[in-house]
Peptidoglycan hydrolase (Bacillus mesophilum), 280 residues
Amino acid sequence: MTFIAEIAPYAKRVQEESNILASLLISQAILESAWGKSKLAQEGKNLFGIKGSYNGQSVEMPTWEVVKGKKVEILAAFRKYPSWYESFQDLANLFLKGVSWDRHKYKLIIGESNYRTAANAVQSAGYATDPDYAQKLITIIESHNLTQYDLAIFPSKVQTPGSQSQKYYKVVQAIPGYFTADNAKSRTSQRTVIKEGTYIIFNESQGMINITATKGVPGSWINPNHHASVDNKAIYHLVAAGETLSELAVKYGTSIQAISALNTLKNVNTIYIGQKLRIK
C-alpha cells in the first residue's frame, strides 16, 4: 500500500468533519513528513510536527530553538498519536480554532473548494515560513491527482433567525440528483443535475440526503458519498436523425430534466442531428 492510499481515508474523514479539502491535508502530510518517512512520523504518527502530548503520550525529538538570542539544538516533546487520523484531526483543529490571539487566523481555508486558493490561504495566514510552501503543496496535489480524494459536498450548519440550527449542504461541483433515497443509494434513475450552491437539507434516509433550494419544499435526493472524481466518467451521445430526449433518457437510464440541465438546453423539444449531448 502506498503512503497516499494509507492516509487518504483519514484525510477524507477529517474533510467530512471540518470542511477542509482532503487534497490539501494529504499534500501537507506528504511535504511535512517526507512521505511518512520522517522519524517523528514513524515513531509518533505525527505528520505535522505538532509539539506537546496527546492523551499523555509524546515522543522526544531534537529540534532547533532560539534561546537568549542564540539558535541551539534541544530535545522537545512532540505529540504521539495512535493513528494518522488523530494527526490530521489536530491540524484541522488548528485551522478551525485558530490561535489564542487570532481565532480567525485560518478561516479562509475552511470551506474553500479550490485547492490552489486553499494552499495560498495556508501560506498567507503565516502557517509556514517557506516562501514556496503553497506552490509545493499545489505541485504535490497536481502531480499525484490528489483532488480525487476531495468530496464534492461540504456539510455545514447555519443558524437561521428564530429557529433551531438549520442544516445545509454546500455543493461545490455539479452532482446527480435522484427521485428517491433508494435511487440515490444505488445511483440509478437520475432525476436531475444539482449545480453548485448551498441547499437546505429537507430530509435524510438510509444515509442519503434530500436537499432543496426552497425551505419546506422537498427537492432531490443525493448520495453524500458522491465524489468529484465521478465526473471523470462523463457519458456523451451524438444525436442521430429522429432521436428525442425522451428516447435518450430511457436508453441511458436517466431523465429529460437531467440531460437538459447538463447541457443547459433552453428547449427540451429542440435537439439537432450531430449535436453532442452529455448524458451523465
